Amino acid sequence: MRLPSASLRLAVLCCSLLAFVPVHSYGQLSSASATGTIRDTGGGVLPNTRVVLKNVDTSVERTAVSNSSGSYTFLNIPPGRYTMETSAAGFRTTTVSEFNLAVNQSSTIDIALEVGTLAQTLAIEARSSAIESQTSELGTVVSEKQVVDLPLNGRNLRSFSR
Known about the structure:
CATH architecture of the domain at 32-124: Sandwich
Low-confidence stretches: none
CATH topology of the domain at 32-124: Immunoglobulin-like
CATH class of the domain at 32-124: Mainly Beta
Mean pLDDT: 79
Helix content: 10-25%
Strand order of the largest sheet: 3-2-5-6-9
CATH superfamily of the domain at 32-124: Immunoglobulins
Order of helices and strands: HEEEEEEEEEH
Shape: elongated
């Protein structure tokens, strides 16, 4: 009886190992993003403005600095409740009140800073729109109660694919 060649054994070993490699599902995102433009009250863009995004529940902060066109971006943000604080030299610190970021949401929050001293603070309230203007994707957040209330035929998960 003849033994398999070394290359055949190597190929079988590689295929066996690939079976245990996890497959990533890129269609399901579990993060959000926030973008916007920082301007002064006259409409001029403000580069090098410090923007701090703070998670209300965990107190984790992320910091960004606006680019030369006044734009800032926060990517891969865990869904949750957030506040945002914006500051620049010679302008009042502006705080955006608590707002929610949901799974796969791309929120645009444009901020106008008023001229003033660093000791002055201006608070504004963020209002998120129901229309997603950043992408053409459709999606929604499903609550735990909605999942529990799903009518399943015998509680079989395979009935979803039909």
